[in-house]
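Same chain as my last thread, 534 residues:
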Amino acid sequence: MANNNEVKTISRDTRILEVNFDTKYPENRETTRRTGHSYGGTLDDMVDNACRGCLANCDRTFSQTSFCQMGVATLIGFSIKDSVVIMHGPVGCGSQSHFMDFTIRLYGAQRGKQMSNARWFSTNLTESEVINGGEKKLRETILEADRRFRPSAIFVLMTCTPSIIGDDIDSILDELRTETTAPLVPLHCPGFKAKVFSSAYDVVYHGIQRAGFDFKPIPYVDYQPLDPNEKDYELKVANYEYQKNHTVNLYNAVSIGAQDEAEIRRLLEALGLNVRFFVEFSHPDDWRMITEAKLNVAMCHVHDLYFLEYLKTTYDMPYLIPTIPVGSSSTRQFITEIAEFFGRAKEAKALLDKEEKKLKEALAPIRERVKGKKVIIGGGYMRVGTAGLLANEIGMEVVGMRNFNYDTYGNALFQEIEDTLGNIPTAISNQSSELVNMVKKLKPDLAISHPGLGIWMNKLGVPSIALFSQRFTFFGYKGAYELARRIDRTLANRNYSKNLSKVVELPFLDEWYEKEYNHYIVDKTAESKQEAIV
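reply #2:
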C-alpha cells in the first residue's frame, strides 16, 4: 500500500494525474486531470487549450441539466456479481435503478455468467434525518442488507443530501466491518461534487481499494501450491511462469459489450496470449487473480486509469492505455502496443495486415453507398474520435464532434483526427440545447450519438445510431464492419426521422437557434482578469 500522504503521479506525454490513495475520497477530474466540460470551437483550439490546462477554466452561465456521477457509481456497483448497493439519501435517488435490473442480468448472460437481480436499498432520508442526521438509518440498512443477502460486497453510495449535512459514512463502515460478512465499499459520489460525471469511475475504484479487497490469490483456496518434492517440479514451475508471463488483463465497462470482449480476445489469443477481463460482471473472489498476469490494459481511458495506477503502485504491475479499438487504425494501435510488450510485434503485423485486407474488401460496397454523406458524432471523447476515423475510412464527411468532456489523454488520438479529417467544429457539452443547436447549423445526414440522445436527432429529422451498445459489436475488425453496416442500413431508410420531425415540436425558442451553440460558454480565467483590470 502507498504510505500515508504519499502522492503518486501518472504521466504519459503531457498528461498528468495526481493520485493520493489514502484520502477518504478522490478529487474530481476537473482537479486531477484538468478535464474540461464546456467548450465550443474547433478541434485544434480544443487540443491546444487542453495542453495549456485552460479547458478546466471554461464553464457555462446557464445550464439546463447535467449527468450525475451517482448514476455511473450505481451501475458499476450493480455489475459486480452478487453485490448489494445502498443509496444513502432520499428514496428518489434510486428512481433510475429499476431499468438497470434487466440489463445487468442480460449483459451477464451474454458473458455466460448468471447475475442476480439488481439489489439495492435506500435509507429513505426524510426531513427529520436532514435535520438530525441519517447515520442511524444507514447503520441499520447495512446490517439488514448483509443479513438478508450475504452479498459479495456492499457498495454504500453517499448522495447529495447526507454529503451536505455531514453524515460520516466512513466511520460507520469502519465500525461495522467486523459485524458484516460482506466487504463494505464507501462511494462518495454526490452529484454536486463533480461537473465531469466520469469522476465516478475514480470514486468507485478508490472505494474498492479502501474496502480491503485482496488482489493476490490465496493458497489452497484459489490454487494448489506446487510441491518441490513432486516429480517434474521444475518443469511445472516453468510452465506456470510461462502462462503468467503471457497473460493480459483487460478492463471492461458497461459500455463494452460481450461481443466486443470476444473480438479483442480473438485477436490477442491469435498471438498466443491468455486474456482475462475485469472487474465488471465478475465476482470479487475473481479479483484475487488479477495479479496472476504480466500486464494490465485499459480498454477505455475514461474508465480504468485510476485503478491501474493503484495496481502498479501496490503490486508493481505495468499497464498500457493504448486507445479504444474502434476502426482499423485504432484497432491496429491497440493490438500492436500489447503485442510489442510481449515481443510479438512481427506476429501482430502479419495478423493485422490480413484482417485489414479482409475488412477493406467487405467495406468496399458500403463505401460506394455512403461516400460523401455528412455525419456528426457525440459522446465520450475516445469513442467519438475513433468512430470519426472509421466514418472517414468508409468515405463519410465528419462535419462535427461533440464530447461530453475532454482532457489531454485524448491528444494523440485527436491529433490524428485533425491530420486526417481537418480542423472540424468541435464541442465539449452535455447540454441537449447545445446539441440541437449544433446539429441544426451543421445539417448532417446522420448522427452517431451516445445512447439516450438519438431521440433529439430523430426529432430534428436526422437519423441516429448508437455510439455503443451491448447488443452490437463495435471493437476490432468485426465491430468496424458491423458499425459500417448499421450506418449503411440507417441511411438507406430515413423515413422514421423525417416523419417524426414533421409532428414533433422541440422545446426551444426560435431565438435560441439564432445564437451560436456555445453562446453560454465562458472562460472564467479571462473574466477574472477583466474584472481585475476594471
